[in-house]
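Internal QA ticket QA-208
Title: Verify multi-chain structure generation after dependency bump
Assignee: T.L.

Test input:
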Amino acid sequence: MKKTNVEEINRNIYDIKNIDDYDYKIQKGLTKEIVEEMSNQKKDPDWMREIRLKALEIYNQLELPTWGPNLSELNMNEIATYVRPKGKMVSSWDDVPEDIKNTFDKLGIPEAEKTSLAGVGAQYDSEVVYHSIKEDLIKQGVIYTDMETAVKEYPEIVKEHFMKCVPISDHKFVALHAAVWSGGSFVYVPKGVKLDIPLQSYFRLNSPESGQFEHTLIIVDEGASLHFIEGCSAPKYNKVNLHAGCVELYVKDNSYLRYSTIENWSKNMLNLNTKKAIVGKNAEIDWVSGSFGSKISMLYPMSILNGENAKTEFTGISFAGNGQNLDNGFKVIHNAPNTSSVVNSKSISKNGGKCTFRSLVRVNENAKKSKCSISCESLMLDDISVSDTIPVNDVRTDEVEFSHEAKIGKISDKAIFYLMSRGLSEEDAKAMIVRGFAYPISKELPVEYAVEMNNLINLELEGAIG
Amino acid sequence: MDNVLLKIEDLFVNAGDREILKGINLKINKGETHVIMGPNGSGKTTTANAILNNPEYKKQDGKIEFEGKDITNLGTDEIARRGIFMSFQIPEEIPGISVTNFLKTAKQQVTGKPIKMFEFKEELKYNMDGLNMSSKNIDRSLNVGFSGGEKKKNEILQMLVLNPKLAILDETDSGLDVDAIKTVSKGIQMFKDEDNAVLIITHNAKILADLKVDFVHILVDGKIIKTGGEELIKEIEENGYANYKNN
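Actual output:
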């Protein structure tokens, strides 16, 4: 049997680097002066500048998390927090600078926009370079724009919601985010408006030794419905890049939001992202999450079920290879009667990669007759890879249906032999088994992402047989 | 010589520390149907797995040729691509991969050609009809939640679709009811022609009732101790293996 251990696989399009050619790049580091300079560059209103400076103070007071992956290699003195790309935000791809447009072309964004999306946002480094939305949605009152525009044009809505779902003091990287946030998308879906095709924002970080801190704020008003897709990627550099985005979702009474993410950051990225949703009466948030890239990921989307009959589902997959430590999971707070949460998580680790699934379930005393069911399954492709499940359950009422199921396994030699006896090579046999394992998740993704995920699995498994 | 498909010479195989096959010799020509019968633990399944070079079974000595070429130590996938198929006694379950998807991939690997979807679907439908299989099954995950009978029919379907030169059926009839055995037997008849061969491993004569069998080999304690024609089947049915065990 051939033995190869490919650490640096060719990630094709994801690894295409453009020259680091920007309009403005702030000096590395994180000081009051740097935050002020950034705020000037961004022409913030005063209230936003105050939030930034307050957040910086909180950042300086908070400690790094004492649990989870070791973040000691992160040195904020080596990270440029703001890189403004060339050009202004436009609504025609023809007006996007050529090399940036080429990157998004290769990622398939303009093509997907034509065939399957109702609106697209594209961020390159710290700013959104492209935003568009279908005419008929504008007529129905749907707002989909970059956060900077929202701050200027809809200050009241933004003030009411910005860093309210995720409080600045939540943890150190939320505070960091609030101090240096830039870019991201703002969505407002008015009462009763149902979007039948998704909106998508894509975040690309090209600049080395920099950070991306986009802020996504989505408000789905009463009785409305939305599917939002978030994609992220970056080419690989030798030094650490940082992603500390923040996603705040307001899912009002009787509304529905599906939030899908495919994260394929490069393997020098620290992905310390925070996502939360506040869910009203009879409303539902469904999270679909694919986590493939990053050196370290700490990502635990959270649903706060505040209204009676509120529901949430989380469907996620993580795939960790050599040198990757993906510490992902899900948090839910049942804070009203009759609420329900369903979690279905899978992870794959190979070549020494580590996947941890962390869950936090809190069922408050008032959340009578609530239901929570968690199932996580891990597949380890060799003996040196690691998989772990860390559940924390805090249930404060007896009237609750609760189940937690965890399975950890390996690819069976018998299954490989069976497939090989049908002519598949060992590599193909393993890839097929892994694709099948991931299928319950990939079928929940938008089709082009499901295809992309399968390609990633094949790519990741090439030469991975040891 | 041109007609020889499989030739096994003096094959010794261990499973773990145990010596299972102790010098097997077997020759199968095109157009022939062979049967290996023997009591439990005599080495029937080991023989099938050794031909496919299952790494769980370690060859100690001997040689296997297929169409005149040494395949003793070839990879299982390469052996399959040369035209040998094995129906598993306990087919593996592969969650998340549909039967169609799997068959398409396998057929592409075995033939080395891209699949023409229309033809492929027609062929699939024809074979499934022949095996009384519900077309719903092809969208289900491979073998997951299939009954014993469905799994075995699915093996026969794979045989028909992949159309090997030599099909080895390892106890395909075990655990099946009379109707299912008839279906499997019908599948074998659909498959069999002058250019291919079948090796049926069984300890049950029922599956053989409707088939024309050319050679019957009695395998006891890792050795073929008798080879004959169809008359041996009847003898085993009446007397069991008692007469052979003390040899």
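Spot checks passed. Chain A touches chain B at residues 412-415, 417-426, 428-429, 432-433, 435-440 (CB under 8 Å).
Status: verified.
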